[in-house]
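Run log, item B.
One chain of 114 residues. Sequence copied directly from the ordering sheet:
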Amino acid sequence: MPRSVNSVASRARRKKLMKLAKGYFGRRKNVWTVAKNAVEKGLVYAYRDRRQKKRNFRALWIQRINAGARLHGMSYSQFMGAAKKAGLELNRKVLADLAMNHPDAFKAIVEKVK
């Protein structure tokens, strides 16, 4: 019996991966083995950094809240503790936006939780 090779599926699989390598530099865009490795590594980075992005934004929001709170004589931890006690239902993203773009509103919140 002759050997059966599903060339159609193999070609489609390679074509799909080469499409992902489009825009890469040098052999990474047109040599199968190099492109395969580059795309796999890129997908690993993408997966990892979707999680990393959440951490980075949280850290940024904390820095902004801290800077805003210190202008009114409180540290970040004191402010967040007082906010929790006062039953403030605003998350860090919103508080950071207020501290950055609406300092008067943030000042009112700080005075309320003091």
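Observations after the first pass:
- The chain has one domain: 8-113.
- The chain has a mean pLDDT of 96.
Flagged for discussion on Thursday.
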